[in-house]
Specification:
Length: 96
């Protein structure tokens, strides 16, 4: 199984609304048929400001399934949304 973790720092402008929309859309994205397990999370209130604000943690059966997800219309649309609200991104894919 492949675990795909993407974390994002959000722009300060409308950060709370952006985070809420990220979580809503991320939950929808997590129902993509190639995803075997999904967590969409936001930073705990009071955590250090240096922490990322939101993250996607998705599990896939294989790297091929992850690659298919990456080019799916749902992921592309989500990526366009996130591109408008994010400052920074970090990602890792690893076997579990």
């Amino acid at each position: 199984m492949i675990r795909h973790i993407c974390m994002f720092s959000l722009k300060e402008e409308n950060k709370a609304a952006s985070a809420a929309e990220f979580l809503r859309r991320g939950e929808e994205l997590g129902r993509h048929p190639t995803i075997r397990g999904a967590q969409v999370v936001g930073k705990t209130q009071g955590a250090p400001n240096a922490n990322y604000d939101v993250a996607l943690i998705f599990d896939f059966d294989s790297l091929e399934e992850l690659n298919a997800y990456q080019v799916s219309p749902e992921h592309v649309a989500f990526g366009q949304f996130v591109g408008e609200i994010r400052l920074d991104r970090a990602c890792i894919d690893y076997e579990v």
